[in-house]
Amino acid sequence: LKVRVVRSSPPSSQFKATFQESYQVYKRYQMVVHKDPPDKPTISQVRLVPVSFEDPQFKSSFNQSATLFAKYQMSVHKDTPSDCGENEFTRFLCDSPLEAEHAPDGPECGYGSFHQQYWLDGKIIAVGVIDILPYCVSSVYLYYDPDFSFLSLGVYSALR
Length: 160
What we know:
The protein is of the alpha+beta class. It is 36% helix and 21% strand.
């Protein structure tokens, strides 16, 4: 048995070289031990989208996100349709006091508010609303399609 300590942040060359193999071990562990389904969202199905109506990805996914938010709120929190319309969604999860900033020594995506979208079969099944700041990531809210609650997307998002 050989054990290596491999720097993950910032990713070392060893980490990058063994990432896929490590991921496959993790995925198998999750399926065998925690009974995760094999179609649980993967890294390639998660998009980090800046919360900005100027951003093309945000604009193109806005209606789908707002509709998913309403479905979640009505199913999980028993809100009425008037409690979770587009205006309420925008006020609650899109309007942010944070200004987008791209510092030269900061993350590639920059700092600010983001929607971390989880896609499966071409549709959004969960959205984690997060703020990326210089010294932390703040989880603001998570909503998901109740039809996919068996995937434990809240736990997955928190661990991710």
